[in-house]
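Readers outside the structure-tokenisation community will struggle with the description of the input data as it stands. I therefore recommend that a typical entry be quoted early in the introduction. An entry of this sort, consisting of the sequence and the corresponding backbone structure tokens, reads as follows:
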Amino acid sequence: MPVFLEVLGDIWNVGAAILTVLLSAIASGHVVLYKRDSRAAVAWVGLIWLVPVLGAVLYVLLGINRVRRQAADKRAQHPILSSGAFVALRRDGEQSPAVIALAHLRTLAELVDRVSGAPLTAGNVITPLENGDEAYPAMIRAIDEAETSVALSTYIFDNDAAGAMFADALQRAVVRGVEVRVLIDTVGSRYSRPSIVRELQERHITVGLFGRTVLPWRMPYMNLRNHRKILVADGRVGFTGG
């Protein structure tokens, strides 16, 4: 019996070692294939091999961008983004005379097309706004002048004087019959107390929260935040920045 137990222990140790190496190899392979940031990839591979098992588990929980994959799936199911008309628009954008005429923009055009899935378009005007004192009034004016739609995406929407100013403008748009949609990051929505989310809902403003982390099985998404700051009015006027 002691000999049997000793052999069984040896088999267990060898099996555990093989499984550990296999797990580390699979996790490292996933890092190499899907991590675009080389520094992050090196860091994750180092953690996976220096801290066996735990490193791989941490990578599965925190290192895999599931949000990007889900976004791609939803984009594929979208009636417009997945339609032939959008594909044709992309094809036309790739051959845009405005882009072809400006050789120094070709690399940028190709990058934008790969990252966003939408081509550069001609005829746009860009106005730099250096700070909130310049940006906020222009954004409020765009909301007040909107006739059909307003889409706002932000990481933080504080329940303060500036937040109230935007809430009032969004409510005025709703009263005019404008389709208003607001997307706030779940973590960013908690930066002020009480959160402004309930107030927006009471004003009949459509609000969505990105990346809820209340449920335990949603915790792997807690490090994937939406830091975008975007306002689009009527699909014609847009604001973006930080």
About this structure: The chain has three domains: 2-64, 68-116, 132-240.
